[in-house]
Design brief:
By secondary structure, this protein is an alpha/beta fold. Helices cover 48% and strands 10% of the residues. The protein is built from 26 helices and 12 strands. The strands form 4 sheets. Strands 2-3-4-1-5 form a 5-stranded parallel β-sheet, with helices on one face. The protein has a 3-stranded mixed β-sheet with strand order 9-10-11. A two-stranded parallel sheet has the order 6-7. Helix 5 (101-111) links the parallel strand 2 and strand 3. The radius of gyration is 37 Å and the shape is elongated.
Length: 553
């Protein structure tokens, strides 16, 4: 049976470990100086080299010809036996399947026996966080004071699950995920040994999918090398082969889908997602690929530039796509019908109307012919009359809010607006699309959308949109910086122009008086046909048999 590549090219010395120089330097110095700890704790994400380091350390502690740098020689009998997995004094335990107290007790019984071959008996406990509470308690004293010939090496991906009592008894070493350059180095080194070459773009795909894990990178390389199909030159691996083998689509296809979604093109969006399903591409993998692509678009826009092909779409639109697909990524894992989740999302984008690309030039040409400046409105607008608030004359039946007609309605303000030749937006068009704007905000901030539904769009004064709200706390909520940014962003998505937000409180809106239950009950009218209450002296009707039972008492 052939070995997998991550086993075949596993690091055999400290110097061969990539990206963990801070850890290997400390361990080499400790081995050279003979300062060996009772227990080591190796912490890090999967595939970062914890198990490889544990085996190299076991070699170094038992090596017959240790190098001056502190590396094992890999030539003596002990080193070769550890490499082959036949060294009797190296015991590897998987805590995920041997997690109980009985296994730990059995381990403790064997500790007193001297090493069979080497100087030290090494116990490597992988995924140590899986041990039970009782097993940890049984291990505590042993970790603190093991026999002189015993060294424990614990490895875990979830260090926060370990009891503090275990942590305090170990020397801890943290392993980092690899950078793109470090992952690339490992792949190229192994590919060269396998006598295969990669196109640069194909290599980029592998590096991105490894996500910083050296073992994942080697596993992906193993799949690609053994499963390449389409190339005329088998020793050269192309991008299309890598994507086909890994179940991925092209970046251009992802871009087309996102653009169709943002443009509200339901037909094309559905056709593209059905093509993904038809090609046998895993939908969860497609979501991850889309998120990775949109991350690059987001970074480009936040950095002040633009991503090729996405210049026409606003930052708010990209943010929403990313947020929606993060939610979809969580839910699709547990869905028995994942394609339906995509269809619902596509329908949502079509209904909200937020997905029109921001084409700045065309809306401006259309607006110039319709919109008038509002400078004169400030000068000629009559002062608002004082509103007299009267106490309610009678009790209301509930505690809902009752609104009166505002003293100056939106229609009156619009009628007073003089015609002119230019402005940022067409107020009539803004008023027509006001429901769509609220729907956009609804998907990001439901409470703010509810406030806007109970508010009135008054007018546009230059670049300022005036809203009339019924209460002061509504005004505070709308004029919050985040709320303004959300409203302005929604308007920009539809019209390509930003506006400032201002609020006016309509003082004529009155709250209905709240009435206590005692007051209501005290004023409930008596029913005419209600029977009169009998006097206390009258004897209530009692069953005759009951009277006979208690007659002699």
């Amino acid at each position: 049976m052939s070995k997998s590549l991550y086993n075949k090219y596993r690091s055999q010395t400290f110097d061969e470990l990539v990206g963990q120089e801070s850890v290997t330097k400390l361990l080499k110095n400790a081995v050279k100086k003979g300062k060996i700890a009772n227990a080591y704790l190796l912490v890090g994400s999967r595939g970062t080299g914890k198990t490889s380091t544990a085996r190299i350390l076991a070699k170094a502690l038992n090596c017959s010809h240790l190098t001056e740098e502190g590396n094992p020689c890999n030539e003596c009998d002990h080193c070769m036996a550890i490499s082959k997995g036949s060294f009797l004094d190296l015991i590897e335990i998987d805590a995920a399947s041997n997690r109980g107290i009985d296994q730990i007790r059995e381990l403790k019984e064997k500790l007193e026996f001297s090493p069979s071959e080497g100087r030290f008996k090494i116990y490597i406990i992988d995924e140590v966080h899986m041990l039970t509470k009782e097993a940890f308690n049984a291990l505590l004293k042993t970790l603190e004071e093991p026999p002189a010939h015993v060294v424990f090496i614990l490895a875990t991906t979830d260090v926060h699950k370990l009891p503090p009592t275990i942590l305090s008894r170990c020397q801890r070493y943290d392993f980092k995920l690899g950078t793109d350059e470090q992952i690339r180095k490992v792949i190229v080194r192994s590919a060269k040994a396998e006598k295969v070459e990669f196109e640069e773009v194909a290599l980029d795909v592998l590096v991105n999918n490894a996500k910083g894990s050296y073992r994942d990178a080697m596993s992906l390389l193993d799949v690609v090398v053994s499963g390449q199909m389409q190339s005329d030159k088998p020793e050269i691996i192309t991008e299309s082969e890598v994507r086909s083998i890994l179940g991925m689509t092209s970046d251009a296809f992802v871009d087309s889908f996102v653009k169709a979604l943002l443009s509200g093109d339901v037909k094309q969006s559905l056709e593209l997602i059905y093509q993904v399903e038809k090609d046998g591409i895993n939908l969860a993998q497609f979501v991850k690929q889309l998120l990775e692509r949109m991350r690059k678009v987001l970074v480009a826009k936040v950095s002040g530039g633009d991503f090729p092909g996405f210049e026409a779409f606003s930052l708010a639109s990209i943010n929403k796509v990313i947020s929606d697909f993060i939610t979809l990524d969580r839910s699709i894992k547990f869905s028995s019908f994942p394609i339906l989740s995509f269809e619902l999302l596509i329908a949502q984008y079509a209904q909200t109307g937020i997905t029109t690309p921001t084409n700045v030039s065309e809306p401006k040409r259309e607006v110039v012919a319709k919109v008038t400046p509002m400078a004169s409105v400030k000068k000629e607008a009559p002062a608002k009359p004082a509103v007299k608030v009267e106490a309610p004359s009678k009790v209301q039946e509930d505690d809902t809010i009752e609104e009166e007609e505002p003293s100056n309605s939106a229609s009156e303000v619009e009628a007073d607006m003089p015609a002119s030749s230019g402005g940022p937006l067409d107020f009539a068009l803004l008023k027509e699309k006001w429901t769509n704007i609220i729907q956009i905000i609804q998907s990001n901030n439901g409470p703010l959308a509810a406030i806007l539904k109970n508010s009135q769009l008054l007018n546009l004064e230059g670049n300022t949109m005036n809203l009339q709200v019924p209460f002061e706390f509504y005004k505070d909520r709308v004029e919050d910086s985040k709320s303004k940014e959300l409203i302005s962003g929604a308007i920009k998505d539809l019209f390509g122009s930003s506006v400032k937000i201002a609020c006016i409180v309509n003082g004529s809106v009155k709250k209905k008086k709240q009435v206590s239950a005692d007051f209501i009950l005290a004023n409930v009218p008596a029913k005419e046909d209600a029977p009169k209450k009998e006097s206390s002296s009258a004897k209530p009707p009692v069953n005759k048999k009951v009277e006979e039972i208690f007659a002699g008492m």
